[in-house]
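Progress note, sequence design subtask.
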């Protein structure tokens, strides 16, 4: 079994990361609407809004997953309040699921949020994405139904809001996962 390493995507990998994102979300819904497809493919925009993480299958260097930790107030962060980072678009290629890449991407997202000085990380996931929600619960995140009510619940892609670890009150609880070094980059 090979190892999985999490790091920031390099600029020359953005096109491949876009393909991994699209392939990772394929099958969850029917063909994505054009605006959703544009979001999945906008790796430079996601990187500029926070960071663009990749899961790399070592030693062969294959990109197998991605996630976008986002700073509050940026174009792609739709749930984060001041002092919170947001994680969106966590995707793992179907043939690599079940190996821990998704959890590792989430833990690194927690580390990035901490390095940015955020008090919490909010997860944005489809309300029907129960596979991801099980991972989030296992890592101590709690679903925030009140935040979901702020969104248009009639849209198919409206988010499920998860906050944590540690509860729904700002500043409570503790972070889980490794303490990431506060330097980002390749």
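Output:
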């Amino acid at each position: 079994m090979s190892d999985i390493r999490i790091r920031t995507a390099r600029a020359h990998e953005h096109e491949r990361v876009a393909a991994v994102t699209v392939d990772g979300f394929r099958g969850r819904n029917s063909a994505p609407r054009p605006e959703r497809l544009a979001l999945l493919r906008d790796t430079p925009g996601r990187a500029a809004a926070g960071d663009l993480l990749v899961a790399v299958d070592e030693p062969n260097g294959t990109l197998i997953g991605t996630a976008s930790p986002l700073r509050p107030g940026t174009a792609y962060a739709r749930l984060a309040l001041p002092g919170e980072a947001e994680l969106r678009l966590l995707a793992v290629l179907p043939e690599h699921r079940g190996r821990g890449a998704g959890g590792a991407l989430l833990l690194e997202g927690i580390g990035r949020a901490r390095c940015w000085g955020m008090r919490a990380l909010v997860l944005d996931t489809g309300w029907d994405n129960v596979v991801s929600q099980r991972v989030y619960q296992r890592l101590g995140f709690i679903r925030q139904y009140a935040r979901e009510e702020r969104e248009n619940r009639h849209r198919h892609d409206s988010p499920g809001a998860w906050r944590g670890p540690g509860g729904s009150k700002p500043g409570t609880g503790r972070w889980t996962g490794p303490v990431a070094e506060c330097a980002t980059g390749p």
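Helices lie at 14-25, 34-41, 43-48, 101-115, 130-138, 145-150. Work on this subtask will continue into the next period as scheduled.
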